[in-house]
Amino acid sequence: xxxxxxxxxxxxxxxxxxxxxxxxxxxxxxxxxxxxxxxxxxxxxxxxxxxxxxxxxxxxxxxxxxxxxxxxxxxxxxxxxxxxxxxxxxxxxxxxxxxxxxxxxxxxxxxxxxxxxxxxxxxxxxxxxxxxxxxxxxxxxxxxxxxxxxxxxxxxxxxxxxxxxxxxxxxxxxxxxxxxxxxxxxxxxxxxxxxxxxxxxxxxxxxxxxxxxxxxxxxxxxxxxxxxxxxxxxxxxxxxxxxxxxxxxxxxxxxxxxxxxxxxxxxxxxxxxxxxxxxxxxxxxxxxxxxxxxxxxxxxxxxxxxxxxxxxxxxxxxxxxxxxxxxxxxxxxxxxxxxxxxxxxxxxxxxxxxxxxxxxxxxxxxxxxxxxxxxxxx
Length: 378
What we know:
This protein is α+β, with helices and mostly antiparallel strands and 378 residues long. The protein has 10 helices and 20 strands. The strands form 7 sheets. A 5-stranded antiparallel sheet has the order 15-14-16-19-20. It has a 4-stranded mixed sheet with strand order 1-2-3-4, with helices on both faces. Strand 5, helix 5 (104-112) and strand 6 form a beta-alpha-beta unit. The chain starts with a strand and ends in a 10-residue tail after the last strand.
């Protein structure tokens, strides 16, 4: 087996969080060499790591003196890279695989010192795709939190009333920001966080990443894409529902029904071995048959703002977007993958519809982890 080298923190690095299953905010070094799993880390953090994973050998970073750097006036911004060379040499590593997010400054210094650094992101993606029991449980808890957040949004929309300027709730203006806050409060009760979420109204719903802002209209569409993260495991969930308030809209109703049908088609295809790109093409063909443009029907190099303009989905775990891919480029699914499937239809300047479920790939098919209804009415 090749040696493995990671440098970073376990909050922003999913590769590190997969190996060291607690949040550590300061950068540290983790390596796998000659059957050893080693973390070179501040001793305080080492005690925390040992309490959750005694199999990781802890080497206190304080044992690597910096006195000569201070004496020689080494630039502050060079110290970490110089220390990385000392630490890696102490482990006897001469060549190691690293992810694409490996710090460039450290890589440059290690290579200058004669240590081979090989970037192989797929190796690290594949290590994380089959979820551990703790990670899968974290995904399940995060999904329940997502559903609680969605229910809180739906309840507020349902109880809201019309006014001269738009929707109000208990005499207060009902805004996308207020709905987002209701969702995050629900997340917290499940031990999750996630203030980076989408509650977009009207024309904002046509932009897949517009977080949403302003007062909900009296007759409006509200697209809610929420992805809380479970604090204990670091794992995400991801789900989307689209709600309508006020007067019915025939186009919205039709598009919503088509998106739900497309989602059902996608779920029916999930099994180990199927290519994510094959699923994306099948759903695109479904939409094209109903007159909607897709990435396959649009002229190459053109800007597609209407129809089904994005991929079918993505993996979910220690990142909200991770392998496997389910777009024009994809991976074969494997048992243990957790994937989000999110067909949508949009018209730039008008609005859009998306529905999204979280799915676990099993030995012969799948388990849908999302338990929230699809209805347009909140």
